[in-house]
Amino acid sequence: MEQEKKKAKLMLKDGLHFEGYAFGHLSSKSGEIVFNTAMTGYPESLTDPSYKGQILVATYPLIGNYGIPGNSEKNKLYEYYESDAIQISGLVISEYSEKYSHWNAELSLDEWMKNNKVPGIYGIDTAALTKHLRENGAMSAKIVIDEDIPFYDPSNDNLVAQVSISQKTTYGDGQYKVLLIDCGVKNNIIRHLIDRNCTVIRVPWDYNFDNEEYDGLFISNGPGDPTHCKATIDNLSKAFDKNDPIFGICLGNQLMSLAAGASTYKLKYGHRSHNQPVLDLRTQRAYITSQNHGYAVDSKSLPDDWSVNFVNLNDRTNEGFYHNNKPFFSTQFHPEASGGPTDTEFLFDEFIDLIKKAKQSENIK
User: Which helix (H) or strand (E) holds 109?
Assistant: First the structure.
């Protein structure tokens, strides 16, 4: 690829632009530009549906050095990916490693992005770009290769509808029946539930589950503005009238807050990294978490029957809350990681414990 370098441009809506070289699919693409400070995990990040509509800037300077793992399918859950395709609109990096080395690598990042029709640009100052985004916030941008295109703002669209499953699908054959509302779920969430003896029934984001029988309800991560998911919010409001355990992650945290009557807002540049410090207000213990979101819950807007249990130690934003009397809780961060630290994986065990207690209560009755 080095012998046939093709020039490309990265253009931001506020007028800033960078010149570099194209890799991946040779096409122009627009979206919201955001940055991620993780040092590893680009196969997981690129396949995370929460990045739908976004151009991702990797702040770590060298990307591609360990290639892309084989797409081995395990019970419809791709073992090393978080969905079945690349979800980002484009990738921006400082230095692209043409040569890769890893025991499980089957193709290069360049080849993988070509196969998924996703463009990339390298050879630009990602440090300067990241500083600009920190000061000015996430905004529309475009990678231009040959043909110019208009700017596109994905926040105006219901991105969840684009990444959610189209029909009910079941995974595993465990003892506990978990209904998962798919708003753009990462595969590792389903893997964690299956590993904890669950049968996972994955349903579309707007699925009416009034007549479904389940032991626990799970609301997944996903992309975009949570207020676009009115059907999900309405369905959750009805679920709150019952006593079945509920667990929400990332977008699920925001959707649960809206269903409870609280409000959400857009962060200046979001939390996208593997090193976000979070404090558990109940134990005063801090955890390092993996995160990927651009919106947050306004903690002050939560009704009196809900309490905040996690806060971000960098900016004090909401990182989770729970119901004071019912088995409902949520986190803004990702306990399942993939990639990132697994410090808070125990929250899946807490969800299963709530399900066990609920089933025991039912048996007593």
Answer: helix 109-115
Q: Please give the Cα distance from 131 to 321 (Å, whole number).
A: 31
Pairwise CA distance, residues 306 & 240, whole Å = 12
3-state secondary structure of 115: helix
Is 82 one of the annotated active-site residues of the chain? no
High-pLDDT (> 70) share of the chain, %: 97
Q: What backbone phi and psi angles, to 5 degrees, belong to 296?
A: -145, 160
pLDDT value at position 183? 98
The pLDDT-based confidence of 365 (bands split at 50, 70, 90) is low
Choosing from 183, 198, 229, 250, the catalytic residue is: 250
- Which of the following is catalytic: 271, 274, 293, 334? 334
Q: How far is CA 342 from the centre of its chain?
A: 15
pLDDT value of residue 1: 46
Determine the longest span between alpha carbons in the chain, in angstroms. 73
**Mean pLDDT computed over every residue of the chain:** 96
Q: Rounded CA gap, 160 and 169, in Å?
A: 17
- Tell me: cis bond preceding 339? Omega within 30 of 0 counts: yes
Residue 8, pLDDT above cutoff 70: yes
Is residue 288 within 8 A of residue 277, CB to CB? The reply is yes
CA dist., res. 213 & res. 359, Å (int): 13
Domains of the chain: 2-156 (3.50.30.20), 159-364 (3.40.50.880)
Whether the CB-CB separation of 108 and 64 falls below 8 Å is answered with yes
- Say whether 334 is catalytic: yes
> Percent of the chain beyond pLDDT 90?
94
Our answer to whether residue 319 is catalytic in this structure is: no
pLDDT at 84: 93
CA distance 3 to 123: 15
Structure tokens belonging to residue 179: 């209904």
